[in-house]
Amino acid sequence: MNYDILQQASSPQANKIMRVKMLMAEGVAEHADHTVTAFRIGIDRVITKSVPVGFKGYLFARIELGQADWGKHEILIRCVDPNGVDVFPAVGDQQDFPNGSKVVNVVTVVVADFKTEGTYRFSVSIDGQEKDDWPFTVQVKPEGTE
Hints:
Layout: H1 3-10, H2 12-15, E1 19-25, E2 27-30, E3 36-39, E4 45-48, E5 53-64, E6 71-80, E7 91-97, E8 103-114, E9 118-126, E10 129-140
Parallel strand pairs: 4-10
Antiparallel strand pairs: 1-5, 2-3, 5-8, 6-7, 6-9, 9-10
């Protein structure tokens, strides 16, 4: 009897369901060891004098994996406006989550023109299932208002 297989099958990690958490940062610095430092983590709004307004940010998706999640998956990032219309074409890629992986971090550069005031929504889907979203508000405050 193969004890390793039994141990893997009964471990909490083996039965864990994929979980995804997203957050937005306004800037990053890349390091030689393949890590990043993020600036203004958690940014969820832009306050502007008028629209349209351009924005550049970094969307982070932390994907926690179980043994059943190892292998190839299609990841898709979307952003929709307050009316549910795509702000830019969905960005996607196939990722291979190697055997033994417990966490995979995906960083996507976001460059968007927000044409109207309101709450936009970024989302990440894996294999066609939405896993998490990040609301992002565009607020217009004309010059001279508090």
